[in-house]
Design a protein that fits this description.
This protein has about 240 residues and is of the alpha+beta class. Helices cover about 30% and strands about 35% of the residues. The protein is built from six helices and nine strands. An eight-stranded antiparallel barrel has the order 2-4-3-9-6-8-7-5, surrounded by four helices. A hairpin with a 4-residue loop joins β3 (about 55-65) and β4. α4 packs antiparallel against α6. It starts with a strand and ends with a strand. The model has no long low-confidence stretch (mean pLDDT about 95).
């Protein structure tokens, strides 16, 4: 039986069969064009067969800034993605571009999941906000990527309780060795804003462990961006 797109509430960043995640951003300019682009993506995908068995999920999130869309897709491996690029991406993008001309497609990065701070057993909350935390380093060093993430988990473990509204966090390492991405699920943007407003520099109380995370040697940049889940699908 031919597989088609099945629409779901959210991706599962911790699914065991995902070898890599592809993450990219589109700049579409305005909230209206955000909505139009999401509708165009849905139409382009639901009208076709699922493009490759190695594509496990594809999700789109609308940026809080009203101008961007974050794309998060999970694949069994790089070859599956390259097959999709060769055989199935252009036709879908052509339909989307016809509906919403002038989309600016920004950098695409490839990641592997390293560690997850999973929701507690029985927690059925659905994320109303996805927070993407990017961290960049001054050169490729896979050991440093993992060590920084481990330092975050050590700092998190020192907290009496997780921030109110935090659901789960999924820490990915870039395959180029230079970056880390945290895909964090929150109940709402308001909960994340409140957590940032608490004492300390960002999430977490003032402590030497958090200071180590924030001043880690070799960090050169990054950012924190909030998104609203807009569309998620898998083969059905």
């Amino acid at each position: 039986m031919t597989a088609t797109a099945q629409f779901t509430d959210r991706p599962d960043p911790a699914r065991a069969d995902a070898g890599i995640a592809k993450v990219s951003t589109w700049n579409v300019g305005t909230p209206e064009r955000q909505r139009q682009a999401v509708d165009a993506i849905r139409t382009a995908w639901e009208g076709r067969e699922w493009p490759h068995p190695g594509l496990l999920s594809y999700s789109v999130h609308a940026g809080e800034n009203g101008a961007t869309l974050l794309h998060y897709s999970q694949w069994t491996g790089e070859q599956a993605y390259q097959d999709f690029v060769r055989e199935g991406r252009d036709a879908r993008n052509a339909d989307i571009d016809a509906a919403v001309p002038g989309i600016e497609r920004l950098a695409l990065h490839t990641y592997e999941l390293y560690r997850s701070g999973l929701r507690a057993e029985g927690d059925t909350r659905e994320p109303g906000c996805v927070v993407i935390v990017d961290v960049e380093f001054d050169g490729p060093d896979p050991d440093r990527q993992r060590a920084w993430i481990d330092a975050v988990f050590e700092a998190l473990g020192s907290e009496a309780r997780p921030p109110e509204g935090a659901i789960a966090a999924y820490f990915h390492t870039g395959t180029d060795g230079t970056r880390v991405l945290n895909y964090a699920e929150w109940e709402s943007a308001a909960h994340h804003i409140a957590a940032l407003a608490a004492p300390g520099d960002g999430i977490g109380s003032p402590s030497p462990l958090w200071e180590r995370v924030q001043t880690y040697p070799g960090m050169t940049g990054g950012g924190v961006h909030r998104y609203t889940p807009a569309l998620s699908m898998r083969a059905g």
